[in-house]
């Protein structure tokens, strides 16, 4: 199993991701976390991820999970699995974690992606919401992401469990603790949201790891490290 879970895109250095992937090739870009956004904003979000991936030598193609939502769930999941098997890496961008989780459930991606990871068929690279959705719980993330967007966007109630691929929760966009005054550089609203998320996880006794926008968690087989 190979995972690259970051707070923001490649973190400080794309080298750990490239080392995990090997030679860059086709990458499936999943932007479901932005499905609640206006069309133009969502389109811009996809472009903003495609360009840096292209500069690193990847060939990005969007995989819109909405194309795999329908009444025949098994057939849709099979089609999604066939599509994802053609990529060496998945790139799952940030946005609303609850919307991303719901769209994964509706499309069957929450079953297909873990299966592909267990067989080491591809690398999963996700940042912010794309990282948080791989954890056991989304508890506390309602401090920054609105669960109410799920009903309006997906027509279902929000799910509070993640895919559970890693055993700990992730709190992205944390201020670098080693830099004096670093938290002051983070917008007050964002810093407060991070603190509320951390407090919720602590009160619930849930193991968690914080990430600054320069950091990422890399899982390669049985090895997990912070880079």
Automatic annotation (TrEMBL):
Keywords: Glutamine amidotransferase, Hydrolase, Protease, Serine protease. Pfam families: Peptidase_S51 (PF03575). Belongs to the peptidase S51 family. This is Type 1 glutamine amidotransferase-like domain-containing protein. Transmembrane segments: none annotated. It comes from the Bacteria. GO terms for biological process: proteolysis. One of its GO terms (molecular function) is serine-type peptidase activity. InterPro entries: Class_I_gatase-like (IPR029062), Peptidase_S51 (IPR005320). The keyword Hydrolase applies.
């Amino acid at each position: 199993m190979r995972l690259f879970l970051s707070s923001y895109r490649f973190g400080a250095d794309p080298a750990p991701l490239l080392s995990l992937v090997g030679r860059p090739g086709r990458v499936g870009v999943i932007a479901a976390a932005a499905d609640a956004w206006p069309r133009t904003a969502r389109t811009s979000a996809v472009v903003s991820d495609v360009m840096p991936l292209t500069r690193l030598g990847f060939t990005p193609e969007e995989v819109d999970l909405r194309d795999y939502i329908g009444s025949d769930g098994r057939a849709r999941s099979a089609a999604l699995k066939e599509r994802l098997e053609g990529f060496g890496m998945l790139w799952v961008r940030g946005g609303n974690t609850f919307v991303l989780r719901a769209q994964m459930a509706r499309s069957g991606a929450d079953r297909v992606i873990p299966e592909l990871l267990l067989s080491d068929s591809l690398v999963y690279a996700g940042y912010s919401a794309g990282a948080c959705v791989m954890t056991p719980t989304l508890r506390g993330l309602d401090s920054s992401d609105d669960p109410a967007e799920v009903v309006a966007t997906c027509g279902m109630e929000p799910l509070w469990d993640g895919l559970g691929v890693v055993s700990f929760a992730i709190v992205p966009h944390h201020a670098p603790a080693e830099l004096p005054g670093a938290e002051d550089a983070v917008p007050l609203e964002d810093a407060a949201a991070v603190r509320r998320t951390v407090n919720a996880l602590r009160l619930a006794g849930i193991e968690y790891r914080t990430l600054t926008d320069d950091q990422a968690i890399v899982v390669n087989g049985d090895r997990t490290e912070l880079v």
